[in-house]
Amino acid sequence: MALRVAVAGASGYAGGEVLRLLLGHPEIEIGALTGGSNAGARFGTLQPHLLPLADRVLEPTTPEVLAGHDIVFLGLPHGQSAAVAEALGEDVLVVDCGADFRLKDAATWEKFYGSPHAGTWPYGLPELPGHRAALKGTKRIAVPGCYPTAVSLALFPAYAAKLAEPEAVIVAASGTSGAGKAVKAHLLGSEVMGSMSPYGVGGGHRHTPEMAQNLGPVAGEPVTVSFTPTLAPMPRGILATCSAKAKPGVTAEALRAAYQEALAGEPFVHLLPEGQWPQTSSVYGSNAALIQVALDEHAGRIIAISAIDNLVKGTAGGAVQSMNIALGLPEELGLPMNGVAP
Ligand SMILES: NC(=O)C1=CN([C@@H]2O[C@H](COP(=O)(O)OP(=O)(O)OC[C@H]3O[C@@H](n4cnc5c(N)ncnc54)[C@H](OP(=O)(O)O)[C@@H]3O)[C@@H](O)[C@H]2O)C=CC1
Ligand SMILES: CC(=O)N[C@@H](CCC(=O)OP(=O)(O)O)C(=O)O
Description:
This protein is an alpha/beta fold and about 350 residues long. The protein has helices at about 15-20, 45, 65, 80-85, 105-115, 130-135, 145-160, 190, 205-220, 250-265, 310-325, and strands at about 5-10, 30-35, 60, 70-75, 95, 140, 165-175, 195-200, 225-230, 240-245, 270, 290-295, 300-310.
């Protein structure tokens, strides 16, 4: 029998992408679609690309509407997931695309999000050492932020093999959908088109501690992260350029071997052949993460680059992948491996 899924925040980018993927998932039946200000609207006016759901109506996000489902995805603004999740039974699988349950340290949460810490759930990045096992059978999943997904996948093999010093410098470009659907002045077409711009410069971006939380345990020592996000004139995609000083004696051969070993058998994370570099257009609409690594011998630095679709591997695809693991289903079920090109 199909598992019945509700999506809260179904009118948003994250919720819409979860639905696009779940409509192609053989074990899932779509139940309630809920939102906030658009409740009452015909779904086809909100997500016109999701034709099978066009005649549905967006409902309010209440415990009554979300009751009676096997799985509930939350694609709500930060800080709103905890109250909704609390009203859902412990037997319901809750997959939170927001940030509420990602960070372990309450003081760090309060510093970066400015609200009380709700708690910590198993973290939905199965490729990180130990995480896949922790997701099996869980009823609660915290889906990672899109930048931490791109960055952690690019750097964890170097840290797992103890090849990198614990100070990472990251510059990543994101498509505008990362900022959500609400209209923001700096995201208007005429402001974004033909321009790239940095934001959150100087260590203030809330994804910085999430990256450090992911990489530190892999490295076996705290990793300091310097992260600069930039906004790129494209709707989707993240290209993360990550670098760290190489430990003494590291060779290009050892580095490549470490990445081959760490990523071997991963269904979605691919180390590209030498000389080929990740680009966002290759992962548009796909749950793949493309990785390449090089040793800059002159500077003594490891350079690791990743490309993901922020709405797929960076949100909804990662969420469905983790859901599959939690339910004991094949990890790849319902997830696109191919991008859309050109
Ligand atoms: N965009 C991305 O790349 C990523 C997003 N995320 C996370 O996913 C979550 C959603 O982000 P995103 O989809 O981009 O945001 P959007 O702004 O596109 O969507 C927000 C959704 O939340 C609903 N909503 C807003 N306020 C309320 C409320 N008070 N009560 C009930 N529903 C409400 C909206 O409904 P309505 O339309 O009715 O107002 C809409 O469905 C965020 O926590 C974000 O951090 C995570 C990773 C990546
Ligand atoms: C381009 C852009 O604005 N991106 C968002 C990140 C989106 C995301 O994945 O993050 P959360 O789930 O933590 O919101 C930002 O920098 O705030």
